[in-house]
Amino acid sequence: MQKFDSIRPFYDAEVNAAICASLNHPMLKAVMNFTFPDVADNVWKEQLRKTHSIRDFQCNFIYQAIQKVLQKSSEGLSTSGFEKLEKNTSYLFISNHRDIILDTSLLNSCLFDYGLVMTASAIGDNLVKRDFMNTLAKLNRNFLVQRGLSPRELLQSSKLMSEYIGQLLLRENRSVWIAQREGRTKDGNDATHSGVLKMLGMGSDEKELMQYFKKLKVVPVSISYEYDPTDALKMPQLMAEAKDEIYVKEKNEDFVNLLSGIIGQKKRIHIHVGNVLDKELDIIAAENDNTNKQVQAIAQAIDNSILQSYKLWPTNYIAYDLLYKTNTYSNHYTENEKSLFERRLEMKIDVSNEMIVESFLNMYANPVVNKSKYENAY
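Below the sequence we write its predicted structure tokens.
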């Protein structure tokens, strides 16, 4: 099992030593003081010293931190679909991706609430360059996706990750969360990237690709935030892409995005888990014997599930009507909600720049466009 050492989270036997080595780190103190504001430092430190497993760390500390984040920066989290999942069963959750940390943390909180198997979750190694962040990720059952590789290194890395995900799901009965594409969706267009599915499929015999995906128990997940706390932070990259320029991140950009996503205002949040892909895979297998076409068809099935169950908020409809200068969806929001959204727009971005305004509105409006396209197609 040493082959996975470069990407895997901690084993339980390593947890206590990693915690004890981080007890006096200022970022751990910040997290704990935020989570337990009325608890003296020596009390939470003593509790951490007694923590010897990832599950204990997640349930006693991370879960509590996420509840505090929801309390402070949202108007609540609603869910649907979880009651269809079976206990003591591992699933491969493939999700649209809006927030670096919260998407997977919120999903795990819901799985915990429903008494279901929590996930090991993919995270880009660019987000854990700081030693403490790397430790925290490994304590929270994150495994590393290596970024910025040459084509040859990428192939090796993909094989390793595919094997590791198969090991978790099929041998360890551990659920897995992975985003439907590399990086967060910045323009509101949620689409499954075939490269992610090809990586997952590397663990199979090519002739048995559909059977392998059936074994993995793929569950599409849609997550939507009424307000994206990092909406304005996504603008520089969208602007560069609009001008066909190469976007270069600032030194601490990932970290700033990560923190902003956690503490920024989100209003309401909804997570829906779809049905396990099963009959869809049988149909794909019957209609296609070309692997590339099969992968594209799986991507489409995941997209269909995510779009069908994506929760649209007043902000999405307001942005659509503002962008297209229409009142098409005016019955989905109040004048007060509209003026609050317009005020947020003015506070967050330079409203004299038409291109920036359009990109910002598109980010919120595109889910409306995509969902209506889906509904018209079916």
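Strands lie at 74-80, 92-95, 119-124, 142-145, 175-179, 218-225, 267-273.
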